[in-house]
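ugh ok fine here u go
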Amino acid sequence: MAKLSKLALYALMVCVASAHAQVMKVVAGHNPWPPYIENDGSGLVSDILRAAFDSQGIELEIQTAPFSRMLIFLEERKVDLIAALWWTERRHKTILFSQPYFHNELAVVSHKDSHADFRGAKSLRYKTVAAIRGYAYHELLESIEQVKVIDVHSLHACLEMVHKRRADFAIADVLAFAHEQKNSPQLSDLIAHMPVLLSWPLHIGVNRAHPHAEEIIVRFNLGLDELKKTGRYQQIVAKYLPEDELQ
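structure:
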């Protein structure tokens, strides 16, 4: 009995030690979304997250797959976090969000010669909009009367739909849209309408059921604060923003 008690005590100590063990590595997921996340996981988001976690002694791995699939992976805990996520009430119920680490400016994109008169979300009524499957702006689109949404897997696919006149509009982050136009000359016939449709802060998100959810969020926030205090954050962002936005 004494021997069994010692074994039980040892097992309990191991469990307690494991519960308090610090996270040493996290796996983040997202769909390719240049220049934020390239196909190989590099990019603006990767640079910020890697630097923030590295300052806390945490190794970061980024995996890429369609966004809707990554949300399933998050739920199934096949990844520890979503690397770039917009806050919504629906998501907040199951996902723990970090401090915002960037802001996305989302614009409506159309063909230049369509002469679209865009004056806000109501201008999308009775129109066809190409959208990335699983993205949070679907909640806005669902509230617009008689809008037809075509779900695709990437921003490039959204823009191609508009370019080929299979959709009237697409919704694109302004920086990502500029990147797509620079790398795909055929998309030069598209235009982003101003003012922007939405301005949304960008977070990392961890499944609330994850055993280390709070630790991951707290340590990322600490790392992000440190990056901003040292000026490292500004240096990272400056590599990706156009010069006129840095002035």
